[in-house]
Design goal:
Blueprint: H1 6-12, H2 34-42, H3 49-61, H4 69-102, H5 112-115, H6 120-139, H7 143-150, H8 153-165, H9 169-177, H10 180-187, H11 194-215, H12 219-225, H13 230-233, H14 238-259, H15 264-283, H16 292-297, H17 299-315
Helix pairs in contact: 3-4, 3-10, 3-17, 4-6, 4-8, 7-10, 8-9, 9-11, 11-14, 14-15, 15-17
Length: 317
Amino acid sequence: MIALKLDDIALFMNTPKTNNSDMVENGWWDALPNNYIKWIRLGRFDRPVGFWLLLLPGWWVLPLTNLSLLECLKIMFIFLIGSIVMRAAGCTINDLWDKDIDKKITRTKNRPLAKGDISVNQALVFLLIMSLIGLICLYQLNTKTWFVAISAIPLIIIYPLAKRFTKWPQVVLGLTFSWAVPTAWASASENWNLGIILIYFATVFWIIGYDTIYGCQDKNEDEKFGVKNSAVSAKNFLSAFVSISYILCFILLILGGYFLQANYFWFLGVMICGLHLLFQVIKLQDLNKNHPLKIFKSNVHLGLLLTIFSLSNHISY
């Protein structure tokens, strides 16, 4: 029987070894030629947490629509592919804007653009390819969805710039990363109502909270180099800021479910997620013991949990 080493566990969980970088050292990409690995890094395909967090709000909304289970699962698959490539496109845009800043930060200095492994022109070609795949996914959905999805482009472009003109760029990120909610709703040809608007803003506050926790990794260096984000801006009231964001998320999810006439499965899922958010805030009290990256990543579990309960809500009708 082969013993499971700690490094193997870290690899399985896709958790970076302690190397002062945000890149995982080893993984499935090791089977590829070295020349391909830089593209895996650029698109963040080595770190799936980001596309899960982009995808899951859309997933937990779809079962609340009038779609049949088969239609729901089909659109969920399209959203899965779309989220992977559009997250890669978003990361590329971010790295193009931030390559000079990334060079100064220990965690990001080895990113392909910052390090010079990929040129700006090469990154633009990669961005075009990811965008085209995203458009193919979008083409599989109704025309109403096209307009909703494309309307997010200004936010996608603005977010990387937000840290240059506001101390709270996570607000812009929240508005952008939550766009799966209205996109999913439109894909089901549903009419707009107060319930879906409330769930959209619930997701906004969820993202503001968890990305503030994520930003705690670079808080000292960001402050040193003048990089603006909510982890730096709220450093003297960090727990209170994240708590308020999560409380608003919880309340809006409850209200959104009420106005959408969701049944008890949705509300049970939200209650359990509320406990999860509470535990995150508790862990935030001691970041020396609880690494902010681990707290941040746990939000994938929260999103998957709410998706399961939302699907149960759908099946029960």
